[in-house]
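Researcher: First entry.
Model:
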Amino acid sequence: MRDAKASMGFIFATVLIDMISIGLIIPVLPVIAGSFSSTQADHAMAYLLVAGAFGLANFVGSPVLGALSDQYGRRPVLLIGFCGLALSFFVTAAATALWVLVAVRLVSGAMQANISVANAYVADITAPQDRAKRFGQLGAAFGVGFILGPATGGLLGAIDIRLPFVVAGSLALVNLAYGYFVLPESLPLDKRRAFDWRSANPISSLNKLAHLKGVGVLVVVIGLSALAQFILHSSWVLFTTFKFGWGPKENGWSLFAVGLVSVVVQGFLLPKMLQRFSSPRLVVLALVSSTLAYLGWALAPQPWMMFVIIGMNIFGYAASAAIQSIVSNSVDATRQGATMGAVASLNSLMAVLGPLIGPGLLTLVAELPRDDWRLGAPFLLCAGLQAVALVFALRFQRTHPVQPVNAHA
C-alpha cells in the first residue's frame, strides 16, 4: 500500500484521525491547566502559559518541517508530527505540575506541522484549478474531527479529566501506524527541493510569504483572522465557564456544533459558493459574517444564543479554502511545503499571541459578575481584528474583481 498512488482518500483519513485526537483534548486542556491554580485569574494565566508554549515552538518549527517535507517528502514529516502528538497527550495525562505541561507542549509544538504538510500534500496531488475544492474537502475533515472529538472529549472528561488525553494519545499512535504502513508519499523525487536553513527560519519564510506575487496583502488578512481565531480558541472554554458555568460536557457540545457547521459548509455548500462568488468576494463575505459572530458571542446574555450564532456564521467557515488556494497557486510544485509551512508559521505566531491576549484579557475581567459585558472583551477584540482584515480583503478584491476561487492565481 505504501507505493499506492497518493489520493485525497489517504490524506483525508490521516487528517480526520489527527483532528479527532486534537479535538478530544480541547474541552479539557483548560481544566487540566486550571487544576494547578486556585482562582479564576490564576486559571486563565495557567492556560495562557500552556497554550502559548505550543504556539511559540510551532512558530519556529513549522517552516523548518515544511522545508524538510519539500526535500524528504510529506510522509516522514507527518510521522514526526504524530509522534509529537502522542508524546504530548500521554505526558499531559500523567502530569503532576504545570511546568510539565508547558515543557511537553514546547517539545510537541516543535515536532508538529501536520496541517501545513497536509495542505502541501493536497497541493501535490491536485491540479491548480481544483485546489479550492480539495482544500474545502480537507476543511471538511477538520470539521468532522471537531464533531467527533470535542463532544467525545467532553463526555470522557466528565468521567475522568485525564481520560481524553489517554484516548487522544492512542489515536495518535493509530495515525502513526497508518502513516507508516498505508499512507503513500505524494511528492515525486523530481519535484523535491534541497533544504535551505536560511529560507527555513520563520522570519525569512514570513518575508517570502508577504512578497508572493499578487497575494501579499492577503498575508495581513491571514494573520489578523488567525489571531482572532486563536484568541477565540484560547478563550472559548474559559469564557463559557466564567459566564455560563459550562463544564467539559457543555463545551464539548458547543464545539461539536462548530464542527457540524464546518462540515456542512466546507463539504457541501462550498462548491455552490465557489460557483457563485469569486475568491476575493468569498473572503469578504466570510469576514463580514465572522465579525458579526464575534460581536454576538461577546454580548450573548443566554447560553443557547452561542449555538444560534455558530449556526448563522455560515460564510465564516468558507474563507480558509479560498485563501489557501490563492496562496498555493502562487508558487510552483517544489515550494508547496515551504509555502504552506510559512502560512503555518504565521498561524503559529498568532497562536503565540492569541493565548497571551485572550486569556490575558480574561485574567483582567475574570472576577467580574457573569452579566457584565466586559467578560466578552476577548471576542470584542476579535470583532475589531476581523473588521481590520475586512478592509484589506476589500483592497484585494478591488485588484482581483473577477478571479474565480479555483483559478490559477
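Researcher: Second entry.
Model:
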Amino acid sequence: MQNQNTFKIEFVALMASLMSIVALSIDAVLPGLPAIGNDLGVTNSNDNQWLITMIFLGIGVGQLIFGPLSDSFGRKPVVYVGFVVFVIASYICLSTKSFEMMIFGRVLQGIGLSAQRTLSLAIIRDSYSGDYMAKIMSIVVMVFILVPVIAPAMGQLILNYSTWHTIFYVNLIYGLLVIIWFWKRQPETLAEEHRIKFTSSIFIDGTKEFFKYKDAVAYTIASGFITGSFMVYLSTSQQIFEQQYNLADLFPYIFASLAISIGLATYLNSVWVVKFGMWKIAYISTIAYAAISLLYVVLFWSGINPSIEVLIGFFVAQFFSVGFLFGNLRALAMQPLGHIAGIGAAINGFISTVMAVPIANYIGSHVETSVLPLFIGFSLFGVLTLFTFLYLKKTNKTVTNSAL
C-alpha cells in the first residue's frame, strides 16, 4: 500500500482513464441512438434505452468474473483479458444488422469493460485506505467526469460527418491507447503473497466473506439505489431533451453542463473528505438528493414539464448531490474489504448494477411525455438511501473517526 500522504498525478489520471473507457462507450453513443435504432429497424424509440441499460447489465455480470480472478492472478492480466472481450463485442456491434444482436454486443461490451471499472477500484484500494482512499476515488471520479462532458458532443460531431459506426471505432482506438499506457506505466498492485489461491469455491468463499460486513452490504445497496435512479437519466436524457423539449442541437451541451456539476462536487469532495469524513458528507448529500427531488415532485405533480431553465436548475442541484455520493458510497463499502478488494469491488459493482438496471428500465419506460417519473424515481430511491444511512447510524454502537 502506498504512503497515505502520497499523491501521484499519473496514477490518478491513469485510473480515471481506465474508468473513462466505460463512460465513453456509454455517453458517446447517446446522440447516435436514433440513428442506430433506425438502421436496425426499431419502431419504438423507448427501446433505444436498452442500448444504454444493457451495457450496465454486462458490467454487473462481468465484475463477478474478473474481480475474483484478479484476486488470484493479479490486477493487470485481468484488465488485458477484459479489453480483448471488449474488442470482440465491439466487432459484433459494428457488424450486426439485428437489434437483438446489438443488445447482445452491448451486454458483452459491458462484460469486457467491467474489468477496467472494477479493477481500477481494486487498484486504488490496494494502494490506499480510509478517508484518503475516498479522496483519491473522488479525484479519479472528477477526472472521469470529464468524459461525459465531451463524449456526447464528440459523438454528435462524428455523426455530422460520418455514421454511428465511427463512434465505436473511436472508442476502440481510445481504449487501446489507455491499455498501452496502463501496460507501460502501472505496476502490479497485488503482491504474490497477498493473492488468494484460485479454486472452484473462490467466489463462494469471497461472497461469504463480503456478507460478513454489514456496512459493506448496506452501502452497496445504497449505491444501487443511487446508481439506478441516475441510470434512468442516462438512458432517457436523449429523449427528454430532443423529443420533449425539441433541443436536439443543444443536447450535447446540456448534457455536458450537467456533468460539470457532478465534476465540481467530486472536486469539492476530494478537498473536504479528509477534513469532514466520507460518512458525514455522504449522509448530508443523501438528504439533499432526496429533498431536491421531492420538491420537484411537489411543484410539478401535474406532469406538465417546467421550462428548460427550471428543469436544468433542478438537474444541476440533483447531480451536485450525486457528485458527493458516487465516490463516497463506494469508498464506504470498500473500506472493510481490503483483504478481498478484487472480489469485494466485484460484488459491490454487481449488486448495485443488478439493482440499477431493472430500476432504470422500469422508470425509463414511463418517461415518454413528462420528466415527472424520473423525479419520482429520484425521490423514492433517495429516501431509501437515507433510510439505509439512518439504519446504520442506529445499529452501529460507535461511529468510526471517518464518520465524524
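Model: Note on the second entry: The CA atoms of residues 231 and 360 lie 6 Å apart.
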